[in-house]
Amino acid sequence: MINKLYAVCLLVENFEQSLTFYRDVLGLTMNSQDNKYADFKLGDTLLAIFEKNEAAAMFPKKYMTFGGGCVLAYQVDNVEKTCKKLQKKGIIIFEGPKTTPWGQKVAYFKDPDNTIWEITT
């Protein structure tokens, strides 16, 4: 029934701030933009940002409450080097780089809306 992840859409408070973060700070390549929506191509999946007030055109804002949150996990070539590049751009790495008990190399930071990002090899 469900067989492929097409997109992850983050509902954000401040579109311009998030656009700057994802496009300019993280250096993601924009795929498309329309008003307060933009998406970035990451492999076969889109990562989209959509300002909450505009997203209300899809469904009422009352449904835009969040439970346990989520962690966006992305592969990089080298966790340590990526952390250094991110820190030079002002991103705070709040955990790591470290190796988990199961052997995975990881580090964590947050976007402007406090969505947690994991980078891993």
From TrEMBL:
It comes from the Bacteria. Residues 4-121 form the VOC domain. This is VOC domain-containing protein. It comes from Candidatus Gottesmanbacteria bacterium GW2011_GWB1_43_11.
